[in-house]
Amino acid sequence: MQTNLRFKNPYTTAQTSVLVLLRMLIGWHLLYEGVVKLQNPNWSSAGFLMQSKGFLKGFSNWIISSPKALYFVDILNEWGLAILGLFLILGLFTRFTSLMAGVLLMLYYLNSPPLLDAIKTTQGNYLIINQLLIESVTLFTLYFFPTGKIVGLDMFIDYFKRK
Questions:
Q1: Which of 6, 60, 64, 73 makes a 20 to 30 Å CA pair with 153?
Q2: Furthest-apart CA pair in the chain: how many Å?
Q3: Which domain range does residue 101 map to?
């Protein structure tokens, strides 16, 4: 008896490969950012939050003023980035993970949108669109594609749910 572990894939091999690669590349970026923060005992989101010029400036100021809230936000950032990145790489809970990672990156963007302060960095000049917005929208897009069921641990979860 032959079992079919695979999700019926309506996409071409090229489409599938690009979507899975995109998911894994963003996953690597998030995982790496989280691990770097976890390895640095002096890292805190306070510096980023102090520079907030965006729609969430008041909320950012409240977080900075409360040591407990700042500690909680730091833990969420460090572990959130690492776990979301790892899950994207592994293709585990990809829809939920893509959505949560997209929301997290959108929060970063809304804290410091380049529209409010035309940012000039060594990477380029930004007016409205920057890497955070692009990566966030890409994650929201990946939410609609079952890449984890095609290549990832979601494929096994789906198989056992169907049994």
A1: 73
A2: 63
A3: 13-162
